[in-house]
């Protein structure tokens, strides 16, 4: 069922691994922003973005393994989707408690809403793989693509925030 999708998942996994590395560079630039408020922001915004890229990398690695059937990969992706949904609820609660950043509707959509959609699509794709539905690879690929795009936007916003606040802590 996933035959012919290898290049997509290899490219998506490579992109996720590269973006994790680039995000670590951005974190290094903002290392002097480690304050109690900054730590709460890290947990609410930065950690979920890194975990989003790490999840894409793990999911792509799970898909390209030559499994004897689609059941194992469907089960693994289903666990990832379910765990992602549970984690995203906790992330949304942390983001609501952040007292230094107020999310407008577009930020809320990308930091909170889109990841929920990614995990739900991954869960649907995993169920489709197990059931043998033809839509399953498209649901999984859509979830991974949206997750990458969402993570890229989140990393960009975080990098801009770090760059804009670097000099404020030095004065």
Tell me the helix content. Answer: over 70%
Cα(first) to Cα(last) distance is 58 Å
Radius of gyration: 17 Å
Q: What count of structural domains?
A: 1
Let me know the number of strands: 0
Characterize the largest beta sheet: strand count, sense, and whether it forms a barrel. none
The 3D shape can be described as elongated
Structure annotation, total helices:
5
Sequence of secondary-structure elements = HHHHH
Mean pLDDT: 85
- State which percent range the strand residues make up: under 5%
Show unreliable segments.
none
Secondary structure class reads mainly alpha
Short description:
With 171 residues, the chain is mainly α. The chain contains 5 helices and no strands. It has one domain.
Q: Can you offer a commentary on this structure?
A:
Helix 2 (36-64) runs antiparallel to helix 3 (71-97), helix 2 (36-64) packs antiparallel against helix 5 and helix 3 packs antiparallel against helix 4 (105-131). The model has no long low-confidence stretch (mean pLDDT 85). The protein has five helices and no strands. It has helices at residues 6-29, 36-64, 71-97, 105-131, 136-165. It has one domain (6-165). The chain has 171 residues and is mostly helical.
